[in-house]
Amino acid sequence: MIDKKFILTGLLTSMINLILNALAFFLLLGDIYKTYPGLTREFTETFERKPEELIIWAMALTSLAMGYFITLVMKWSWARTFATGLKYGTAVGFLFWISVNSGLYASSHMFSLPAFLADTLCSGLSMTLSAAFAAWMLGRGEKPAELLTH
Q1: Which residue among 10, 93, 122, 131 has the highest number of C-beta atoms inside a 10 angstrom radius?
Q2: HEC per residue, the chain
Q3: What pLDDT digit, counting tens, does each position of 73-101 carry?
């Protein structure tokens, strides 16, 4: 049986997470990456795609995979309120992004230390808030007694 609440929550969480990450990039991270580059400008220009070269379906798949990952973690944790989503989302979000970004920082020139720290903070915060939203969505319509039994 298809869980319609899970499907809707995953879609909406994907959108929320994408918007939060985009805001972080345009308001903060883009400038930090330029000010504290890990790679030379020449290498970055050959390494990164220009906006008109982006592969939209792959970007959409990335957003959907992360949104459903967050939603699945919240479902399995039985987080069903915004507050419990913040709690579990903080743990999962920051552990996830510390793992990914510290691995990249340790083994490549993708990040400078300031960019590594800023990206980890912004990505962890985006994932935390997305998880809180997912938990809240999953708990909508459940009776308080149902929330306490899990």
Answers
A1: 131
A2: CCCHHHHHHHHHHHHHHHHHHHHHHHHHHHHHHHHCCCCCHHHHHHHCCCHHHCCHHHHHHHHHHHHHHHHHHHHHHCCCCHHHHHHHHHHHHHHHHHHHHHHHHHHCCCCCHHHHHHHHHHHHHHHHHHHHHHHHHHHCCCCHHHHHCC
A3: 999 999 999 999 999 999 999 999 999 99
Q: What are phi and psi of 52, to 5 degrees?
A: -75, -10
- For 65, how many CA atoms within 13 A lie in the half-sphere containing its CB? 6
pTM of the model: 0.87
Counting beta carbons within 10 angstroms of the beta carbon of residue 45, is it exposed (0 to 12), middle (13 to 18) or buried (19 or more)? exposed
CA-CA-CA-CA dihedral for 69, 70, 73, 79, to nearest 10:
-160
What is the rounded CA–CA span in Å between residue 125 and residue 108? Answer: 24
CA distance 29 to 126: 13
Structural domain boundaries enclosing 103: 4-148
